[in-house]
Here is the input.
Amino acid sequence: MGVIHIDSDILIIGGGAAGCFAAVDIYKKSPNCQVVIMEKAHIERSGCLAMGLNAINAYLHPGQTPESHVSYVEREFEGVIRKDLVYSIAQRLNEVVKDVEDMGLPIEKNEDGAYTRRGKRSIRIFGERLKPILAEAVRKTSAQVLNRVVATNFIYDGERISGAFGYGIRDSMFYVVRAKAVIVATGGASGIYRPHNTGEARHLMWYCPWNAGTGYAMGIRVGAEMTSFENRFIALRVKDVHAPTGTIAVGAHSKQINARGEDYLECYYKHLGGNKCLTQHRLFATLEETRAGRGPCYLDTTTLNEADERRLKEDFLNMNPQIILLWASDSMGPRKKPVEIQGTEPFIVGGHCQAGYWIDKERRATIDGLYAAGEVAGGAPKKYVSGSWAEARIAAAAAQEDIKEVSLKDIEDEIIQSEKTSVLCPLTKKTGVSPLEVRERLQKIMDEYAGGISMNYALHEERLLEARRLLKCLKERTKDISAVNNYNLVETLECIDRIDVARIVVEHLIYRKETRWSCYQTRLDYPEKDDSRWLTFVNSIYNPNTDEIKMVERPLNS
Here is the structure.
């Protein structure tokens, strides 16, 4: 296998929504800047928006301000957010949406030319081709795109990140990409917990199944400080196909009902301490109804008229066509039968929740030369796609400014050979465990001991401590994985990344001894929210030399 050396000014790892936007933004300001995007799939249809999108869920309508947006996010996340990060996103939401519209994204408008609202903070779009539109914008720049190249580790000398290693899935080449700065935009992590759908349907899940947490894991392995991994995200979605419920609940104004036809959310308002349900409370109430024997639960679409039903189907064709096939398969459309809903497995994402790199206001990580944008950046939930574009703009500007006095570093041949040998090792083994076996073992551990579906997402100390022990043993077994081809090798690398992320998740879940976010982080042994003690960020730093994870707390105003 040969080695390909590439030099760049800025390397962007991940060609999803944030990565593509960052590349375009850099080119606008610095046309001569050498940008490389390393993407393990293809930027035209990669990441969690590969199928498209039917709404932009973070947008400031007339009368709303960055300050009101911060207050909303703070309320939704029980007081624990980085206000500085959320505010800097809110300042840019509308401008980045307009920029992407100028790239060619069709946005629905009213007769007066204003964007059509879908909800209090969202607008309707025709976004099935969102990723191809972003990819076309990248092609108009001078950026070099490395499609089908999976990132393996950062190039790090203990002082500064100076690039990354990658492996070409199609060409079997080992890539050494030097850079003056690296922006991580790889998205969050799925596949850590056992999914609802198993067997051949195991990849039919809400979050992109190929988002393995690689960006998180690469940062963890070099000792970058990470934050809020205990703040997991569990989506309330359409059963089996995991289509977004917001399209129905917000877009079609359908109520949540139980098997008796009762609107059960109203019953939980008082129990949850207010007259409004937070996002996670909709999932909590659904679980409680099911436990009480009043499930299955549904979104009541039977009140829709024919035009509303047609519009609903059009919305899903822009984002999740599986539900259209589901309705067609049993001849029971949404007007004839309410849509059954359930919770997904937990995901680790910094866009809906806030797990990710601990960053400063300019999106710099705690290691020089490293920046984070989008779902891999921590501390700023509810950012969604427009917030990811805003963060990409901030990170891109900071990186461009910071590299003015930076030179490319030489990389010793021994370091390159060591990484190459480590990456290819599974291909050299004639016998061993398969990546599928390792992944299933990981998912079983996380499901049963770290609050998965089988435990109704609930957690307590004894099981979490056992998860810690089992994950450490599983980590040792990764040296025995064998791969039969390049695609199997990628699965192996993803297994290793997911285990590294899972270990951090468990340590965070152990450390926060309260229940702050219903379902996302429910501690049976600490069932109450404790503002006197836990209005703080829980962070972690991994030591690769000792294999130890140090937990640290950071104040809210960091």
Notes: The chain has a mean pLDDT of 95. The longest strand covers residues 3-13.
